[in-house]
From TrEMBL:
Residues 263-516 form the EAL domain. InterPro entries: CSS-motif_dom, Cyclic-di-GMP_PDE-like, EAL_dom, EAL_sf. The lineage of its organism: Bacteria, Pseudomonadati, Pseudomonadota, Alphaproteobacteria, Hyphomicrobiales. This is cyclic-guanylate-specific phosphodiesterase. It catalyses: 3',3'-c-di-GMP + H2O = 5'-phosphoguanylyl(3'->5')guanosine + H(+). Its EC number is 3.1.4.52.
């Protein structure tokens, strides 16, 4: 009888929650869809701006190198150097030497001057936040072009004409491309670059605009969308929202029905699980893209409940971070992985074990001492341990972080920047921190076989890594086509489901045994080898 009442209670909770969620969704769907669309388009405008900032950063670095190499005096040697950098780059169309007032003295390709219909004076240009660069619009017969200028000395400057087009600004989803455009404008409202799939289309007379302003450069990115196109999506969005609401109502009802069997205090349950060593290190292999050779692995946390359930990290990592338990959890996972994988790491001295470290943990007072003791107790070389610091969370004290990374390097540890390209860091951040590895986020890997702009971003990151003597690892690889595209961009290492999903330590050891026998040289391992 008690079981029957319990069953009826669960069914009633599910039905009630589904009804409440559907009713609430029906009332809130308009605001929900409007807010969701606005957030999506605002984020896309940020993506367009970040890509443009990266292009300006790249141009600034090239101008710096040219200035450092020698005098830009319009001599044959100087012009040859300009042409070489234009030829080698993907962002710059032309480089010109200008006088103090901004007037052009010579160009890498003098023929390009014939396309100019107007050239900005120095007082018409806009300074970057650090005062090192000036941005301006170049009037050409074919349309507006985007210029970046850096001073050589008190009399001369170098100006680069950038290629910012659909490769960088094509950020809109397929359903909105024909009804929208993306523009880059200077503070005076002048457009310096734009993108619309239909080259003959003009900006809609009436549009909804989403703008992001750069805090580093006098530049803003704006997405214009026809209001009618947003309205046209509401019928489908309504049905999808109601379906999601019903599903969520059912899930919430199940959670509500089982609430009494769940711990009252989730933090106390976290402490209990830590004391019982229920958090287990799962690992995902890192491999060489050209050969498929396994060169290391990354530790990923899983919670193995006493009843056999496996809890994914997103269900407990945020709580562990906010409650201050993440440090203890990290040490527990690292100690277990080092102990279990010690034979493999001793057999292969080049094998690297990576572990994720939060920025707050990295800056902790005892972090370096605790890390040294943990690794020393396992009799594993510090050169085989990689610390991955995520770019999604901003470092509170970059100066201190730089000192910590330097000291870790002196001890033999390697530091990697995780999720590069979608987080807080800019080029100066990456350069100052002193990390030795860049990990390209899955966002770019997913798009690399279908989006030219993703290829451009990956190539820029690879070029940056080479300049800073860093290695590059691509995350989230699922298809051989992605491997081929990444190799073409210069990436040498990666990880993802193509080779193996996250594995328990026992299954990972079996996986390594299979790879030693079955791996085929010259191509990444087949997914079935991970089974």
């Amino acid at each position: 009888m008690a079981l029957q009442r319990k069953h009826m209670l669960r069914v009633g909770a599910v039905v009630a929650c589904v009804g409440v969620f559907l009713a609430g969704a029906d009332l809130a769907v308009t605001a929900l869809i409007g807010g969701q669309t606005a957030r999506q388009l605002s984020e896309l405008s940020k993506v367009a701006l970040r890509r443009s900032e990266a292009a300006i950063d790249s141009a600034g670095s090239i101008l710096n190198r040219l200035i450092a190499k020698g005098p830009m005096d319009c001599s044959a040697i100087a012009l040859q150097a300009l042409r070489l950098h234009v030829y080698q780059g993907t962002i710059i169309k032309d480089i010109r030497t200008v006088d103090r007032d901004g007037a052009v003295q010579c160009a890498a390709y003098s023929e390009t001057l014939e396309f100019d219909n107007g050239w900005a004076r120095r007082d018409e240009m806009f300074k970057s936040a650090d005062g090192e660069l000036r941005l301006f619009r170049v009037e050409q017969f074919t349309g507006a072009a985007f210029g970046v200028m850096r001073d050589i000395d008190a009399q001369r400057s170098l100006a680069a004409i950038l290629r910012i087009d659909g490769n960088l600004l094509d950020v809109m989803p397929v359903g909105l491309r024909a009804e929208s455009n993306v523009t880059l404008t200077l503070p005076d409202g002048e457009q310096v670059a734009g993108y619309h799939p239909d080259a003959s289309a003009k900006s809609p007379a009436q549009s909804v605009a989403f703008t992001t302003v750069s805090d580093r450069y006098p530049l803003q990115a704006t997405i214009h969308v026809r209001p009618q196109s947003l309205s046209a999506r509401r019928d489908l969005a309504y049905l999808l929202t109601m379906l999601a609401a019903g599903t969520l109502g059912g899930v919430f009802g199940l959670l509500l029905a089982s609430y009494l069997s769940r711990p009252v205090d989730p933090v106390a349950e976290l402490d209990r699980a830590l004391a019982a060593n229920e958090f287990k290190p799962y690992v995902q292999p890192t491999f060489r893209l050209k050969t498929g050779d396994i060169i290391g692995c990354e530790i990923l946390a899983r919670w193995e409940k006493p009843d056999g359930r496996l809890i994914p990290p997103m269900s407990f990592i945020p709580l562990a971070e906010s409650s201050g338990r993440i440090e203890k959890l990290t040490w527990q996972l690292l100690k277990t992985a080092l102990r279990e994988l010690q034979p493999e790491m001793k057999q292969d001295k080049l094998f690297k074990l990576s572990v994720n470290i939060t920025p707050r943990h990295l800056l902790g007072d005892r972090f370096i001492d605790d890390l040294r003791k943990t690794v020393a107790s396992s009799s594993v070389s510090t050169r085989q341990v990689v610390l991955e610091v995520t770019e999604r969370e901003e470092l509170a004290d970059l100066d201190k972080a730089t000192d910590v990374v330097k000291e870790l390097g002196e001890l033999g540890f390697r530091v990697a920047l995780d999720d590069v390209g979608i987080g807080h860091s800019g080029l100066s951040y990456i350069q100052r921190l002193g990390a030795r590895i860049l990990k390209i986020d899955k966002f770019f890997v997913d798009a690399i076989t279908r989006d030219q702009s993703a290829i451009v971003v990956v190539q820029m990151l690879v070029a940056l890594a080479r300049e800073l003597d860093m290695s590059v690892v691509a995350e989230g690889i699922e298809h051989q086509e992605q491997v081929d595209a990444l190799i073409a961009c210069g990436v040498e290492e990666g990880q993802g489901y193509l080779v193996a999903p996250p594995l328990s330590l026992g299954r990972f050891k079996q996986f390594l045994d299979v790879r030693r026998v079955s791996a085929v040289p010259g191509r990444a391992a087949k997914p079935e080898l991970a089974a």
